[in-house]
Design a protein that fits this description.
The chain is α+β, with helices and mostly antiparallel strands. 49% of the residues lie in helices and 14% in strands. It folds into three domains: 13-119, Butyryl-Coa Dehydrogenase, subunit A, domain 1; 124-227, Beta Barrel (Butyryl-CoA Dehydrogenase, subunit A, domain 2), CATH 2.40.110.10; 240-382, Butyryl-CoA Dehydrogenase, subunit A, domain 3, CATH 1.20.140.10. Strands 1, 2, 3, 4, 5, 6, 7 and 8 form an eight-stranded mixed β-sheet that branches.
Length: 386
């Protein structure tokens, strides 16, 4: 059944440029205030992007993995906090398109709401004591079975979009004799959901990545998605690679935004002693070339590895974590190169370059983190086990 429409968004170069510009209009404001970036998300929704990434069988545009990456990059170039919230939501729509992860009635509700406004979905997995689940361990957060469904209790850390999150996928273990592990779908407006505003980071300030406490929150019986289950993170036919690099794409967008500022600055800056734009000097031209070289590396890896992974190339799928490391390194290097060349104007609050530097540094925290990716790649190339 269809609950939405594509609004004609097909990820053309022109549409992507317009999307970036629309989202960028409020990026500085939200960076300064650290408020939930509702206007940025509204701009994405008005462009038809939320509808376009929903599966075709649900009435959406069903864009392919490379188009989805281009969208995330374009939004990231405008406002990476908005892009992160969108990318998290995107993962659910991709999984649902192929696997029916969510119960049909609940997902129909999401589709109906998405037709009217930007609906955000994200997993709540990290915990204050456990840390990031990617490094192992079981959640302390529990789901207690009741006659009508589940009751969720516990505290989660770093829940992106928390203050405006429409649906929480809360990672839990059940209180059964033989515990099960999975996610419980909890609507954000459920009684007992408490947002603890702990997020005060250097970058992605508007991402609203606060702690959330679930005080005996009731959820329906069908809301429990047991692991192993068929979705949210994994895509069929190698598309897991596309999803794994989805968050990385937004930081390539940040680096492109930094490049854009650098090029504009270089062409407009005319020192009195020089009498012409610094863009005409070989030093600045070499810097511009270095930035472009780093971005070429990042984008070639991002889209090249993804294309091969989607085609089912097992080697490319295995290389996705190490590709993420190199894309992140190149994106950070591009921004740092621009800052170093410009000097004080690059770090002043009056210019956006300092914001791009703060935001791109956040790329390192997303899993797989660098040490894990390097160890895994090293073991694979050495031919040794865990």
């Amino acid at each position: 059944m269809s609950a939405t429409a594509t609004a004609g968004f097909t990820a053309t170069a022109e549409q992507l440029a317009e999307l970036t510009a629309a989202v960028a209009q409020t990026a500085e404001h939200y960076d300064l205030t650290a408020e939930f970036p509702l206007q940025g998300l509204d701009a994405v929704h008005r462009a038809g992007v939320f509808a376009a990434v929903i599966g075709e069988r649900f009435g959406g545009g069903g864009l392919d993995p490379l188009e989805r990456l281009r969208i995330v990059q374009a939004i990231g170039q405008g406002d990476p906090s908005v892009a992160l919230i969108f990318a998290n939501t995107l993962g659910t729509h991709v999984a649902q398109a192929h696997h029916d992860v969510w119960p049909a009635e609940l997902y129909e509700r999401v589709l109906a709401e998405t037709a009217e406004r930007p609906v955000s979905i994200n997993t709540a997995r990290a915990e204050p004591e456990l840390g990031a689940p990617a490094r192992g361990g079981l959640p302390a957060t529990t789901a207690r079975r009741t006659a009508s469904g589940w009751v969720v209790s516990g505290r989660k850390a770093y829940v992106t979009a928390s203050t405006g999150l429409d649906y929480h996928l809360v990672w839990v273990k059940t209180d059964e004799t033989t515990p099960r592990v999975g996610h419980v779908i909890v609507p954000g407006d459920s009684p007992g959901v408490e947002i603890v505003e702990t997020w005060d980071h250097l970058g992605l300030r508007a991402s609203s990545t606060h702690d959330v406490i679930y005080h005996d929150v009731e959820a329906s019986a069908e809301s429990f998605l047991e692991i192993p289950y068929r979705g949210v993170y994994r895509d069929p036919a190698g598309q897991g690679g596309a999803l794994a690099l989805g968050h990385t794409a937004l930081y390539v967008g940040v680096a492109r935004a930094a490049q854009e500022f650098f090029l504009r600055f270089a062409n407009e800056r005319v020192p009195a002693a020089l009498g012409r734009p610094i863009a005409t000097t070989e030093r600045i031209q070499a810097v511009a070339g270095e930035i472009e070289a780093q971005l070429l590396t990042a984008e070639t890896l991002l889209y090249g590895v993804t294309e091969r992974a989607v085609a089912g190339d097992e080697r490319a799928i295995a290389q996705t974590p190490i590709a993420k490391v190199q894309i992140v390194r190149a994106s950070i290097a591009a921004v740092e190169t621009a800052v170093a060349a410009i000097g004080n104007p690059g770090l002043t609050r009056h210019n956006p370059l300092q914001r791009h530097l703060r935001d791109v540094l956040s790329s390192r925290v997303h899993p797989p983190q660098e040490d894990q990716a390097l160890v895994a790649a090293g073991r694979r190339t050495l031919g040794v086990g865990d």
